[in-house]
Amino acid sequence: MMSDWIFMNGTYVHREDAKVSVFDRGYLFGDGVFEGIRAYNGNVFKLKEHIGRLFDSAHSLLISIPYTHDEIKNIVIETLKKNHLDTAYIRIIVSRGVGDRYNLDPFVCMNPQLIVITEKFNAFSSEFYDNGVEVLTVPTRRNRADTLPPQVKSLNYLNNILVKIEAKLAGMQDGLILNTEGYVAESTTQNLFIYKNDKLITPPCSQGALEGITRNTVIDLAREYGYNVEEGLITRYDVYTAEEVFMTGTAAEIISVVKVDGRVIGLGKPGKHATKLFENFKKYVVIEGEKIE
Predict the structure, then answer these.
(1) Do 262 and 165 reside in the same domain of the chain?
(2) 176 contacts: CB under 8 Å, gap ≥ 6
């Protein structure tokens, strides 16, 4: 059954009635922020952290969210309950609201919009987890952090969309994004890790990587299990010669990369370290977060 109820600015509306103005700045200019969250068997994973990042993104854009952290938490849980979902994908969207369609000035718009959508999650194909995926480095570079900070999860996702287009046209599931200095930043919607020389390494956020909730969780779990985890600069050579490469994200969780730019990674199949982390991650997601009660 599809989820019928969507929270919009203080009320719940049916899917067919969930409409926004064509003059909303989120539609006109991509002027807004969002979060994607997973619920697992009655547990909304890392909801507090996701809401915190939502507020940080909005604050950096000078968007004042008209709800508190706790209010949004309760809205998310209530929306899940109204839709009878205990395992779901959740999208929280905040736009600056309706404004003058000709005016970029954000200060003329004083009515931010909050929308919460919950839907049954369609899991990725088991083939991706069993066999890993192949990616390639795309021509499009990560936007410079001093012009469009990667830590802001904004509604303007064109940088990532261009990368996805290039990857799909090449017949790949995902693309590797380099920053303007030539270092690896991330993939289209996921953070990247490599295992090399007894170290688990991921690009620092300063190199254009989003500070992913799943990324941070994997770092914490890996350190708990005794891994030497570092944030460090990663070149394509480092990726090509790594023992293991894997990507992390809310939707995908942990997926191994077995070939990059035609180079086989490690043994050409998901490695033992990614497999171990994924097995423990799956146990963790059902206990860490907010319960749907």
Answers:
(1) yes
(2) 135, 136, 137, 138, 184, 187, 192, 236, 239, 260, 261
